[in-house]
């Protein structure tokens, strides 16, 4: 039971084109030609709106979209750092991100911290900044993170020789919030008994969302939502699934699950729901930097945050809202924060009657071979459970 | 798997008995250092205190590595260092397989740092006494940051996560002081004990002296030949981890300092003749310690500096500002500079300075597969050391799992490295 759309979605092809050519996407190269600055960011704790408000283009640093030999990544980051970090670093070392005017990261996990250390030493982007990101939600943690966000803004202003005004920040927040609202509308279509879009197709949209100018992305997504509402596309499935775990950018992995008849109806990945889920709450245009800071620290949390129940509860809420039959946890080898959480999360899902399939993967894996066998068995188990 | 309280007691008792036995053997060995005897006795006393705490109405706090234990001592709370306990168990009791297997049963995958898998396994089978509270921090990695919640669930106890900021700006230090204050409130509430600020000030004063002694001992190790036995730097780590700011630590360090100073004055080295002065990066496998001691003697190789563990950053503690000093210490410890915080120019310079100041011939990087953030520096350190012509041998290893490395494999690689050094 394949889950490919039976009707051609033209806007989806536009998103695919962006992804297939990334990082040398036409729109990015054109903006560079026009003299616009482009900054690479890594981790969802980097407030993109600040880069956008400075008149620059933020793009997310990701690795190769398929499983690759990572000779350089292995040599520089060693084999026991996650393949996402190694893949990103290898692309950087091979000059694939040479057009970046700067890179911005957060102190989110060991792999990300060291990726940035090595990027700084061996690749040397003109602008390099790492935000200290607290792991808690206390007022003190908010104060610290706010000061970090403010410092980042100041450094960017100095580097670019301009001032980022509150008006510009508010305008950027509006653009980004529109993007979040549109993505929510897209996800709402997946709550239907027979969703209008597959998980693999959704991942194409998500990947493009951080690889192109936001205004253009919003325009494309509005058109896609129109297309979907009239396409008559519906997808039946053997089981409604949710993906949780490490960062993932390859729709082929999701497609391999959906080819077996499962349908990924929602997810908890930093490259998907956790990226867009919470808006920046603005009161008019009052203190936009504070609003940005609160949103980024309070957003749907990464496994790095404490207490983990904040994340677990949001996952359980998603599972209820999307009527999920089973959860597939895909954890990149050596992605330790998620690996530590797995026994606790599995227990909580089990208590709600939701089975979990735990897969150890490498970043970029297409989900062939043993993974297909395990997913097939999981789907059979879910079907048997329903009977 | 349920373990009876009698078995629990026996597990810790075995550790205590082994430490006492080592102390006795060391005492009757005319070649052994007196400080070594004292060290084993300190280990025995530490675990005796843990074992007796609950029976005598003590309050036990289990905590992860690089934790500000000074606060626990000032509150009369008995600390139990989780990682050190696992690696001592690995070293002395050879129970690694049992603990790691229990960790795997909990669902902890093999990519997770083995001491942390071992700790969770040990608690789950009752090999460690159940603590009254669990304390943990993100200093030094994601494993320490993420280990606490599972341990709370296993032990059915409350816990506190201490958030250590990434960089050392003024705002971040202030944040960390606030975290310490919150932790003290948590401990006061859970233990019914009050923070004794005068006692904390005393402990800080002693900790300051302790750091000075660490630095002075490291200075003595610059001597040619170097006086400190090849793998004994682990004693320095354990003393800091288990007895920060405690009189026992001062006594041990003063005695060790005296012994090393005497050796330097007499021109005696820990190995004779001293042929290779080595920098040790990270920690060798525990089960190979005895073997490494022997092969070091055999080849005249001595570890003279361990920049990730024994080189404290510049700075003093102020007993008049006890809490600020406890926070400051967390930013001075060697592990923070090269293993946790950003690898800035200062951290890289320290590696090069260590090699030059200690006149090292080569470096051995024990690439522990469970320590991702440290291994990510293997190539970087190799590159900066090669600029000053210091070769680096990298050995993949696991510090507690004995199935990963054999003596034969390590011997072969070390011998080749020593040949290379000899040829230079």
CATH class of the domain at 23-167 in chain A: Alpha Beta
Distance between the termini of chain B: 56 Å
CATH topology of the domain at 23-167 in chain A: Rossmann fold
Question: Strand-residue fraction of chain B?
Answer: 5-15%
CATH fold topology of the largest domain in chain B? Rossmann fold
Number of helices of chain B: 18
Secondary-structure element series of chain A:
HHEHEHHEHEHHHHEHEHHHEHEH
Strand order of the largest sheet of chain A: 2-1-3-4
Helix content, binned percent of chain B: 55-70%
Query: In DSSP terms, counting alpha (H) and pi (I) runs of 4 or more, how many helices of chain A?
Result: 16
The best one-word shape of chain B is globular
Give the helix proportion of chain A (percent range): 40-55%
Strand order of the largest sheet of chain B: 2-1-3-4
Mean pLDDT of chain A: 96
Q: How many angstroms does the end-to-end distance of chain A come to?
A: 19 Å
Largest protein interface, residues of each chain: A-B, 48 and 43 residues
Question: How many E strands of chain A?
Answer: 8
Question: Could you give the count of β-strands of chain B?
Answer: 8
The biggest sheet of chain A, with number of strands, parallel, antiparallel or mixed sense and barrel status, is: 4 strands, parallel
Structural class of chain A: alpha/beta
**Helix/strand order of chain B, N-terminal first:** HHEHEHHHEHEHHHHEHEHHHEHHEH
